[in-house]
Structures are given as structure tokens and as C-alpha cells.
Amino acid sequence: MENMTENKINIKEIDIVGLAKKVLCEKRLLAKFIVAFAIVGVIYALNKPKEYTSIVVIAPEASSMGMSSSLSDIAGMVGLNIGGNGNSLDAIYPEIYPDIFASPDFIVPLFNVKVRLLKDSVEKRYYDHIVDDVKIPFWSYPMIFLRGAIEQLLPKDDSNVVRDSVDLFQLTRKENDVYGAISKNIGCQMNKGTNIITISVTDNDPLVAAIIADTLQQKLQDYITLYRTKKARIDYAYHKEINTIAKEEYQAAQKEYSSYADSHIDAYLTSYKTKSEELEEEMQLKHSVYSQSAAQMQQARAKIQERTPVFTVVQRASVPLRASSFPRSFMVIGFMILGIFCDAAWVLFVRERYEQWKQNRKNKKEQGATKIEE
Fold this sequence. Notes:
Largest sheet: 4 strands, antiparallel
Number of helices: 12
Number of strands: 6
Strand content: 5-15%
Structural class: alpha+beta
Strand order of the largest sheet: 4-5-1-6
Oligomer: single chain
């Protein structure tokens, strides 16, 4: 049995070696395939735009994410969630930050961010940069022409009209295309074990990638801060309004008491004294209400600061020096390897069947011609 197994293995090895020799025997054909695919690879590589990626790494404060329990901290280190969230009503937590990045409410405001190219000092909107500066590979032209032809046949609409302000409720076709392009260029990943948030931006220009990455960092911090402090800011606005009303009422009571006291300074009648005491008591009551509302307002203001999350920037946005896209030389090498496989497929499998099909077709034509002559 062992000898039979060894013989089978040897047969397979001999077959593989034989097939390889069969392919290598036709060196000219192999060279033609390699050169042809290398030319295609060069064309593809030259038309494939370079891409640069700028990365920002931030670490939110543990308490700002509700992880106040030490046990929850330990569980978080190994990527577990044991329900130790100090604020169970918090709807926005780091795990859904990527979903926030994909929402139109977050991406569309990026349209108006001012950017500039590395070799150009003129500032423009990020929207205009995506529309005008991003290079389109040649293999996308057929789809663009086809889409343009279809649009010409359809009724005219305002899908390509540039509007002064973007309506999030109803984006135009062009705005939706730009939204889709931006959503593909930006990314947000959250490490469940360390709670580290990584923001990445990819663009054809390195400076634009760095500008948008820095903008996204600040925008994410503002977005989370506004959400987490929303209730506290509403409470503060309410207490501030109450304090303003209480202050006005206290000042009015103080003014009324002072005017009455000054106008009856020499009065000795009991009715005057009683009225003065009533006004004084009312003024003191208003002052007490004003003092309490002022204290509540200060507490609400402190609550805003308490609820404001703290983000530590581990890695700031910087202009990338090297392209993050696949190297062009590797693209050409990949096409050359593909050419070798195509040559092997042609020599070993396709050519024989093709010649057989061609011969059968020729025979059928000869048979048909013979029948006609008869």
C-alpha cells in the first residue's frame, strides 16, 4: 500500500513537471503573453490614481464613555461588555461611531470644508475638489458615457444643478454621488479592547487627506460633546431663564420697597410701617428665590463641564509622504504573472479545444459545400 501511494505521488509530480516543461518549451509564446500583459499592466498602473491616507488616533476618556466601573474597565481590555455601563441611557457609544461617520448628517457638512492641494495655494470646497480634481480611471469612461446617454433620454431635471445650500432631506443626483465618494474615502474604526478610535481619510492629494482627517477629528469630538451635554445644556438654559426672571422680579420688588421707604421716611402711622414691612418681606422672598435660582444655574453649568467628554489625541493628522495605494511596480508584476497563467491555460487546455472547434467548423463548411455541389 505504501509503495502504491508513493507511486501515485511520483506520477503527480512527474505530471506537474511535464506540464511545466510543455509550457516552457514554447518560450516565444510565453514571452509574447508576458510582454502583452506587462503593457496592459503599465497602462493600468499609470491610469490608476495614487491614493494617500492620513490617520488620526484618539482615545476618549473612560468615564466619558460610561465605563466608570473598574470591573467594566478590566472586561473592556479583553473586548467584553458585562453591562457595567454607568449611563445605560447613553445612545451614542464608541461602537457606533463608524455608523455616525456613514450618515448624511455627518458627511454632507463636509461639502463646505475648505481644502487646498499640496501644489496649489488656492482654497476650494471639498465638494468642488471631489468633482473637479479626483481623477477617473479610463475603464470607468464607458459607464460614464452610458450613464450620460441614458440621462439624455430621460426627462430633464435639476439633478445636476449646483445649489447654494444642500437639502439633507432630498439630495440631488450629483450631491448623492459626491456623498457616496466621500463615504468611501473616510473611515472610523474602534478597538473594543482598548477603546482607541482610528480615523482614516484617503484622497488623491496628501494635503487634502490631512485637512479632512483633522476636520473629522474635531467634528467627531464636537458631535459627541454636543450629544452628551445636550440634556445639561437644556437644563442650564432653563435655569438661566428662571434666574433672569427671578432677578427682574427681585429688582422690581427692591425698587418698589426703596421708593416706598424713601417717600415715607418720616411717617409714624402703623399702616405705613405695615406696608413697608410687607414690601420688605416680599423683597426678601424675591431675593431668596433669586439666590436659589442662581445656585441651580451654577450647578447646571457645572453639569455641562462634567458631561463634556475628554479626548486624548494619540496621533494627530499629518500629511502622508508615501502613497497608501498598491505600488505601481507590483501592479505590473501582477499582470505579468497573470500573463504566465494565461499562457499556461492556453497551451495546456484552451488551444487544443480551440483548434478542434476550428477544425470541426471547417469540416462542416466542407460538408455543406459538397452537398450544394451534389
